[in-house]
From TrEMBL:
Signal peptide interval: none
Compartments where found: Cytoplasm
Protein name: Imidazolonepropionase
Catalyzed chemical reaction(s): 4-imidazolone-5-propanoate + H2O = N-formimidoyl-L-glutamate
Length: 402
């Protein structure tokens, strides 16, 4: 197994439970794992050496919410929105039509290109969802293609009730034949619990069936207005509730309560509140109250929500900068949410699989060797120099990918 010493790191943010920030640091990668971290002056010898030139080093981004399986784009809808129209879930059907028209090869090529774009921007762990198929064969096709590219696949058959269907009949399809067809490719299930999509009762039915089939749970909730998504996510002990733009005090309290018995040893976690800053800007929704959530004791994640309707970007750097500049997070809080927070939202923040490290989103001995170097001496430059391409080098599972 070859080892690589990355030395002369200006600032290294571990993002582990101790949140260490090391100056003049070094890290050793051995195969797919990190085998050593510490002061550059104390670093052990390795087979190969890479001089970071004083650059900052962070864990690779963990993007825990994307919708990469789609064809077409929605430029016209975006333009109308910028001219004052509000976002409505109905736009999803435009993408469903375009996606159904794409061949398997076309769709796979589009998804692969988007994942490569994310990797080039420092994303080393990626979740993506189905949800632009909305019939049995198309959802299964989307999940099959996603599974070849993404680290984690989420079944989002309950994204919109397709034209011509009664909602209750469609819920039966989602929880029956569609779930069976998608199940071999997915680890998670999600539902768009919102006015215009699925009610809390319909969402509960979908999520319970998916949980019974062995899938972990996630919820799109409280995006377009106050609603029951957050409460449902906490009730069902979902790993994450995403968007969280419209929260009342009971929602924040419920999320905070879910973290009161967090016990990493026992693998007991609460429900992560996943904030999607690029989506909030593109839809002109009120920004998710990230700071308030943190202050209440809620664990948050930041994700790109790359999709053609509300957030056509894979740039986690942009999301982090927005969280700092617009949502009132410190750089450290925003970086943590985009690394460790994403890992928590995917239950990947600790442990090992039979065949390798399970822990991503933080830099610690034994964790997966997923890290990035910036063309800057500190992570602060992400927000201090917004919009600049600062990714210098990226390693995923110990292999240089950008
Ligand atoms: O997460 N909110 C629902 N789903 C996507 C948007 C889907 C679309 O408009 O195509 C989201 O924002």
């Amino acid at each position: 197994m070859t080892s690589l010493l990355i030395t002369n790191i200006g600032e290294l943010m571990t993002q582990d439970r101790e949140h260490r920030v090391l100056a003049d640091a070094a890290v050793v990668l051995e195969g797919e794992r990190i085998s050593w971290i510490g002061a550059a002056s104390a670093a052990p010898a390795a087979d190969e050496e890479y001089d970071a030139g004083g650059r900052a080093c962070l864990p690779g981004w963990v993007d825990s919410h994307t919708h990469l399986v789609f064809a077409g784009d929605r430029t016209a809808e975006f333009e109308a929105r910028m001219a004052g129209q509000s976002y409505a879930a109905g736009g999803i059907s435009v993408t469903v039509d375009a996606t159904r028209r794409a061949t398997d090869e076309e769709l796979a090529q589009l998804v692969t290109a988007r994942a490569a774009e994310a990797a080039a921007g420092g994303t080393t762990y990626l979740e993506t969802k189905t949800g632009y198929g909305l019939d049995v064969d198309e959802e299964a096709r989307g999940a099959r293609i996603a599974a070849k590219v993404a680290d984690e696949v989420t079944f989002l058959g309950a994204h919109l009730v397709p034209d011509g269907w009664a909602a209750d009949d469609y819920v039966q399809l989602v929880t029956g034949a569609m779930l069976s067809a998608v199940r071999p490719y997915a680890q998670w299930a999600d539902v768009f619990c919102e006015t215009g999509a699925f009610t809390p009762d319909q969402s509960r039915e979908v999520l319970r069936a998916c949980r019974d089939a062995g899938l972990g749970l996630r919820v799109h909730g409280n995006q377009l207005g106050p609603g029951g998504g957050v409460q449902l996510a906490v009730e069902l002990e979902a790993a994450s509730v995403d968007h969280v733009n419209y929260l009342g005090r009971p929602d924040v309290d419920a999320l905070a309560g879910s973290w009161s018995s967090w016990d990493s040893g026992a693998g007991r976690r609460g429900t992560v509140a996943t904030c999607l800053p690029a989506c909030d800007l593109s839809t002109r929704q009120p920004l998710a109250p990230a700071r308030k959530l943190l202050d209440a004791g809620v664990e948050i994640a930041i994700a790109s929500n790359c999709n053609p309707g509300t957030s056509y970007t894979t740039s986690m750097g942009f999301c982090v900068a927005t969280a700092v500049l617009q949502m009132g997070l410190t750089v450290h809080q925003a970086v943590r949410a985009a690394t460790f927070g994403g890992a928590l939202a995917l239950h990947r923040e600790q442990g090992n699989d039979d065949d390798g490290a399970r822990a991503v989103g933080s830099l610690a001995v034994g964790h997966r060797a997923d890290l990035q170097l910036f063309s800057a001496p500190s992570a602060t430059h992400l927000a201090y120099r917004p919009g600049m391409q600062l990714t210098h080098a990226v390693w995923r599972k110990g292999i240089r990918v950008a």
